[in-house]
Design brief:
This protein is an alpha+beta fold. It has helices at about 50-60, 65-70, 130-140, 145-155, and strands at about 10, 15-20, 35-40, 45, 75, 90, 95-100, 180, 185, 215-220, 235, 245-250, 270, 280. The mean pLDDT is about 95.
């Protein structure tokens, strides 16, 4: 299989932008704010998240064993498991997540599942370590949080979403998030219950797709809820040390009732070895 993961990149001139969020519906404990001026050097970033096809080519070329594959399990959303699926251990604070043995990037719903019809969907069940390994193989890297957010904003200043402030402008869906009552019923009003192809919906002003929803996207930075005080910040790359890594963009499981982190100023920290059914990434260079 011949693929070029860098072929779909867009060149961005960088520049100054207002990063972060003071949204009253946001999560201050996540370190979304304060809104701060950030200057980013020119860079390139993929227009889409990495697909199953692209990750398959990487595994075929390198023999890479993902974190989930090595550990033998990953977290799957309970609502996507068959009704007769054996009982599995859940997460106390989030019982909709189930530990499923045999689940990994090519078996997203457990050992009896596969990737039929999902070639152009984002690869999931990838840890931060897996994402870095793929980026090194492809000749790219993960974006910094600042690069990711500048690109996701698409040239808009402090809009909540990549296209503006209205979640459904003129009644149309622009991203793949949870519609319905979480976690009981996903009505799939946006067209999808689960992941969607990486180029679904309209791109933002910079030509990037699905910067809100679909899958969380790993960034290079360590996570911290505190930010340097000097302004403007120039090419910030996060703290030098830390436990968690940054993820941005939210996923198909985001819903305003419990997690509206599909806003571009939102962020999340997660351990770099974590692996779930809604975690992916895109490349920078």
């Amino acid at each position: 299989m011949t693929v070029d993961p860098l072929a779909g990149m867009v060149d961005l001139p960088g520049g100054s932008f207002l990063m972060g969020s003071d949204d009253p519906l946001g999560y201050p404990a996540d370190g979304e704010g304060p809104v701060r001026e950030v200057v980013v050097s020119p860079f390139r970033i993929s227009s889409t998240a990495v697909t199953n096809d692209e990750f398959s080519a990487f595994v075929e070329a390198t023999g890479h064993a993902t974190t989930a594959g090595s550990e033998g399990w990953s977290f799957v959303f309970a609502g996507h498991l068959p009704d007769d699926f054996p009982e599995t251990r859940g997460v106390v604070s989030a019982p909709w997540w189930r530990q499923v043995f045999g689940s990994d990037w090519c078996h997203p719903l457990g050992p009896d599942s596969g990737l039929a019809g999902l070639a152009d969907h984002p690869v999931v069940h990838v840890s931060w370590f897996d994402a870095v390994a793929f980026a090194n193989w492809a000749g790219g890297r993960l974006p910094t949080e600042a690069e990711w957010e500048l690109a996701a904003r698409g040239g808009l200043t402090q809009a909540r979403l990549p296209w503006g402030d209205d979640l459904c402008p003129e009644g149309g869906h622009r991203c793949n998030i949870w519609t319905g009552t979480f976690p009981i019923e996903d009505t799939a009003q946006d067209g999808y219950a689960g992941t969607c192809p990486v180029d679904t919906f309209e791109s933002n002003g910079y030509g990037l797709f699905n910067c809100s929803g679909n899958v969380w996207e790993w960034c290079m930075d360590h996570f911290s809820s505190h930010h340097p005080v000097e302004r403007p910040l120039v090419d910030p790359a996060g703290p030098a040390m830390g436990v968690d890594r940054i993820a941005k963009g939210g996923s198909f499981l985001c819903h305003d009732s419990y997690c509206n982190r599909y806003r571009v100023g939102a962020r999340l920290g997660n351990t770099p070895d974590s692996s779930t059914a809604h975690q992916g990434f895109r490349l920078a260079a």
